[in-house]
Amino acid sequence: MTIGIDQLDFYVPQFYVDMAKLAEARNVEPNKFLLGIGQTEMSVSPVSQDIVSMGANAAKNIVSEEDKKNISMVIVATESAIDSAKASAVQIHNLLGIQPFARCFEMKEACYAATPAIQLAKDYLANRPNEKVLVIASDTARYGLHSGGEPTQGAGAVAMLISHNPRILELNDDAVAYTQDVYDFWRPSGLSYPLVAGALSKDAYIQSFQESWNEYAKRYNKSLSDFASLCFHVPFTKMGKKALDSILTEDIDSETHNRLTSGYDAATYYNRYVGNIYTGSLYLSLISLLETHDLKGGQTIGLFSYGSGSVGEFFSGKLVDGYSEVLNVEHHKALLNSRTELSVEEYEHFFNRFDNLEFDHETELTSDQHGIFYLNDINDHIRNYNTLK
């Protein structure tokens, strides 16, 4: 009996800023953003969308009434926690109406945490054939206006239902993790924005990938020719491409080289228009690959997960026959295409309101967002959520 991803979905806020226009406003050559880091648009989170509401919105369409009876664990992976004690998984569990006898908690290790959450879910379900685990990766990436990291911001959530006999991706028993204590990106308690050592961060990412991939290939006697495609954690789309290029050496045959390169382009298409969503970035890339590339059941997908600080992991899964029938391509296209573009000035207002928790529902909630969860207000430090009718 196999275990893996039975369903998956994502949610991004209703607003975005055009990266070329942001570049011009920052007196930067637009191609530095469009080509240099490989980003075209960037999701902008209103105050009314935090990790709870985004996570619930990502999950609501893939969790049926029957699933709610069988989900016995909810895990939220995030580095944008809104409380130092109460787990956002508890609030999402409530919003979705999942049965009460379930474990709910958060996991943290920068952008990596969704991957150990999935591995934990897989191990947990090994002796529980009738149960399911809901894993949610939800984050708002924020570095500050006019900061060096500003063009690699974003917001969104990915939800994955882990179960026996999955309909999308069967997880293989072949993960290799690599841990190294390095200060490439970190956010000490009390700081609103992370601290980043840019050059070190890129080097640590690539080293982590190479170490985990090389060990994986050695342990399991694998080569790049064994994979239909690879997915990477993509804080910006050129980051994963640098890692991929580092192993596409001269001894790689042209067919494998071309296959993995074209697969990478497909796997980062959605990310290019969303930006960095931290823990969800790898899995948004997986959705992008599955929905924009020609793949077949039985093919193997390799995945590299990375979280600064740092932990990297390379693992794989096998596509299930008929996986495309479970995807919701039209919904995702509509979600991305129906967003509202903000001017740079409007984006800056949104950004400052988010920091100051200044609600503006008249601006942020529009009629075409009916059915979504949103943060309505905060009273006595208690967050109250509603559903837009």
The helical percent reads 25-40%
Total strand count, please?
17
Task: Indicate the overall shape.
Answer: globular
Task: Output the structural class.
Answer: alpha+beta
Task: Give the CATH H-level superfamily of the largest domain.
Answer: Thiolase/Chalcone synthase
EC number: 2.3.3.10
Domain Hydroxymethylglutaryl-coenzyme A synthase C-terminal: 177-259, 265-385
Family: Belongs to the thiolase-like superfamily. HMG-CoA synthase family.
Binding site for substrate: 148
Notable features of this structure?
alpha+beta, Peroxisomal Thiolase, Chain A, domain 1, ten-stranded mixed β-sheet, three-stranded mixed β-sheet, 14 helices, acyltransferase, transferase, HMG_CoA_synthase_prok, Hydroxymethylglutaryl-CoA synthase, hydroxymethylglutaryl-CoA synthase activity
Topology diagram in text:
Blueprint: E1 3-11, E2 15-18, H1 19-25, H2 30-36, E3 41-44, H3 51-59, H4 65-70, E4 71-77, H5 88-96, E5 103-107, H6 114-125, E6 132-141, E7 154-164, E8 169-171, E9 176-179, E10 185-186, E11 195-196, H7 198-220, E12 229-232, H8 237-247, H9 254-267, H10 269-272, H11 281-292, E13 300-307, E14 311-319, H12 329-337, E15 340-342, H13 344-356, H14 361-364, E16 373-379, E17 382-387
Parallel strand pairs: 2-15, 4-5, 4-6, 12-13
Antiparallel strand pairs: 1-7, 1-8, 2-3, 6-7, 8-14, 9-14, 10-11, 13-14, 16-17
Helix pairs in contact: 1-2, 3-5, 7-8, 9-11
Domain Hydroxymethylglutaryl-coenzyme A synthase C-terminal: 177-259, 265-385
Binding site for substrate: 148
Keywords: Acyltransferase, Transferase
